[in-house]
């Protein structure tokens, strides 16, 4: 099993029409997001306008959630107009072919991936477990300081808020636990899995 911690200082920050976007992880590393030449991309963005239009990403699938404020999305695609109202941490799947507008200022979190692969995104609370599956790649993004405990080896990794842990080359199924100082039910980590 290969583990890689990615610090905030390694992320790529760029501007988009609605604010600022931070690329957490891009695969393959030599891929180009701007040219739509990549397999998958994990990012977070600050939506600084009350109304903004998302970048067009034809041929890709997308998953988004807000990390702080409510967010309304209007997707216009083959089936017509679809309106979605998201509370913080609610997940929305949509097509990169859709023309998508957002309403409301927030910090969002995104997974964009090729239909050739499968992608999932969910949140985890303190004391929850993640079942690591053989052959799956996991990207864990810390929403606050968390400890990731590997049951098989009793090894643990501490992640500062905003840092990520990429887990790859899993040779057999195993379990990790998420621990933090948070006592409430708020999510402490975003789990991305790529199949």
What's the topology here?
Layout: E1 2-6, E2 12-16, E3 19-27, E4 40-47, E5 51-53, E6 61-66, E7 71-77, E8 80-86, E9 92-95, E10 99-103, E11 106-113, E12 119-124, E13 129-132, E14 137-142, E15 146-150, E16 156-159, E17 164-168, E18 174-179, E19 189-194
Antiparallel strand pairs: 1-17, 2-3, 3-4, 4-11, 5-10, 6-9, 6-11, 7-8, 7-10, 12-19, 13-18, 14-17, 14-19, 15-16, 15-18
3D structure, described in words:
The chain contains no helices and 19 strands. The protein is an all-beta fold and 195 residues long. The strands form 4 sheets. Strands 2-3-4-11-6-9 form a 6-stranded antiparallel β-sheet, with no helix packed on it. It is globular, with a radius of gyration of 17 Å.
How many individual β-strands?
A: 19
Mean pLDDT: 94
- Separate helix tally: 0
Q: What fraction of the residues are assigned to beta strands by DSSP?
A: over 45%
What is the terminal-to-terminal distance?
16 Å
Task: Enumerate the spans where pLDDT stays under 50 for 5 or more consecutive residues.
Answer: none
Helix content: under 10%
- What structural class should be given to the helix and strand makeup? mainly beta
* Major sheet characteristics: 6 strands, antiparallel
Supply Rg: 17 Å
- H-E string: EEEEEEEEEEEEEEEEEEE
Shape: globular
Strands in their spatial order, largest beta sheet = 2-3-4-11-6-9
């Amino acid at each position: 099993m290969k583990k890689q911690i990615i610090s905030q200082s390694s992320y790529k920050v760029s501007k988009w029409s609605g604010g600022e976007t931070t690329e957490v992880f891009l695969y393959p590393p030599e891929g180009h997001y701007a040219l739509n030449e990549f397999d998958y991309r994990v990012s977070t963005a600050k939506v600084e306008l009350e109304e903004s239009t998302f970048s067009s990403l034809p041929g890709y699938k997308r998953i988004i959630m807000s990390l702080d404020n409510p967010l309304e999305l209007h997707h216009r695609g083959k089936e017509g107009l679809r309106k979605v109202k998201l509370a913080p941490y609610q997940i929305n799947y949509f097509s990169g072919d859709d023309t998508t507008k957002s309403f409301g200022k927030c910090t969002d979190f995104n997974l964009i991936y090729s239909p050739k692969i499968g992608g999932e995104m969910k949140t985890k609370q303190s004391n929850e477990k993640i079942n690591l599956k053989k052959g799956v790649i996991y990207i864990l993004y810390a929403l606050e300081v968390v400890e990731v405990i590997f049951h098989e080896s009793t090894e643990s990794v501490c992640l500062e808020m905003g840092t990520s842990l990429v887990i790859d080359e899993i040779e057999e199924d195993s379990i990790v636990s998420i621990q933090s100082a948070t006592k409430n039910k708020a999510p402490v980590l975003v789990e991305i899995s790529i199949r």
